Structures are given as structure tokens and as C-alpha cells.
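JOB MANIFEST
job_type = single_chain_structure
chain_count = 1
residues = 145
[input]
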Amino acid sequence: MEPDSSNTPLRSLTETIFVLFLRVVALACLWFGLQYWALLVGYSHDGLGRFDLLSTPWRVAATGLAVVFPVAALGLWLAGSWGPVMWLLAAGGQVLMFTVWPETFGSNPLAVTMHGVVFVVFILFRLALWLEGRHKQERITVDLP
């Protein structure tokens, strides 16, 4: 069986590095998700973080993030348009936990800083890809008489 399209366009260097960046962030999201699952099932913190031993705010936050982080990891790994949206929900929730309610959830400046850096780098990549797309359109434009 032959492929439908014999000549697929090659990705630019910026697009390739962007996909690599998304996959690195996906691995970090998977790690965060596994950490929350380990907390909920009692594998980490000597079993003191099991779901039945957590306070209500921790139950809500940990279960939500245990689901959203792996889903975001899948979306980012596949470079789907929904991956960054899911990451923004998960990272936003975690940043809110550690900045707005530190008396309930404690503080984690490393996670907050990491999410901020990832957000800035993501915006810079999107800007670079937008400029690259504009530049490609300018080269392709044909003026008809």
C-alpha cells in the first residue's frame, strides 16, 4: 500500500526544537502525576499522604492534579493543541496551591519557578513559530495582474 501523500513538508528547526521542548515538559508532567499518585496511594511520605489521611483541600487538589498532569503529559507528547491547555490547568492549579494558599498546601518555590519558566519559553516558541509562519507567507505571496 502506498502512502496518500508522497512528499510531506519537512519541519523547520524551530518546530523540531519546539516538539522536543513539549516532550521534555511532558516527561516532567508525567513525573508530577506519578508523584501525586504515589502520595494518594500511600507509597510516598511513609504512607502519611494516603487519600484517607489527607485533609479535604489536599484530597481535592491531589486527586485533580493526579489526573490532569498525566493527561497533559499525553497531550504534550503528542504535540496536540489540547496538551498545553491541560498543562496550563495543571500548572495553574499547582501555582495557586503554593502561592495563594501556602498555609494549607505549604510552599514549593521550585515548582512555581519551573512552571513560570516553562510558560515563558512556551510563549517565546509560539512567537517564533508565528514569525516564521509570517515569513513563509511573505515568500509564497504571488501578485496577480
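[summary]
Residues 15-131 form one domain.
The two ends are 43 Å apart (CA to CA).
exit_status = 0
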